């Protein structure tokens, strides 16, 4: 295991999941998804770590995150990349995550309240894209906003089960897809739900 992966794992193990929760804080230590209101969840910690490691963050990575949610995944992305652009469609979650992450001292996160399935074209292209909600298909908008040499992690499939995909774009613009796992995520609302 390389040094960077070890650093991410160490940081993750020190990250207090309960800080990102307004209720059920006593359950924060469980390795399972938990409700955060508005029919959304804070993801299972082991899955958050798996997805983060698979994204292969670099110190100069510009990251797009679709689904800010509680801000738990956002914090991990922000700690190991140059900048994070995160999009959330539910206003109370967007507002709370913004307050929480500012309080924690992260200053390289940009927030947007919008339909995440459309990405955030204004600041594209991105080196890495993390999608934390399940789409019926990979949004073309996200593919279009990925830099050469970039990677996307996204759950794709029906409501009961999805394939967690790693999509990589070569320096010459050729795409390859790897199935990492089978997962169950809340739906990506908007154009691709």
What is shown here, in short?
With 193 residues, this protein is of the alpha/beta class. The protein contains five helices and nine strands, in the order αββαβαβαββαβββ.
Could you describe the largest sheet, including whether it forms a barrel?
7 strands, mixed
Give the percentage of residues in beta strands. 25-35%
Q: pLDDT average, as an integer?
A: 94
User: Largest beta sheet: what is the strand line-up?
Assistant: 5-4-3-6-7-8-9
Basic shape: globular
What is the total tally of β strands? 9
Residue share in helix: 25-40%
Number of helices: 5
| Structural class by SSE content | alpha/beta
Along the chain, the helix and strand elements come as HEEHEHEHEEHEEE
List keywords for this structure.
193 residues, alpha/beta, seven-stranded mixed beta sheet, two-stranded antiparallel ribbon
Describe this protein's structure.
The protein is an alpha/beta fold and 193 residues long. 25% of the residues lie in helices and 30% in strands. It has helices at 3-14, 45-55, 72-79, 91-103, 140-144, and strands at residues 34-37, 40-42, 62-66, 83-88, 109-113, 126-131, 146-157, 162-169, 175-183. A 7-stranded mixed β-sheet has the order 5-4-3-6-7-8-9. A two-stranded antiparallel ribbon has the order 1-2. The longest helix has 13 residues, at 91-103. The termini are far apart. The mean pLDDT is 94.
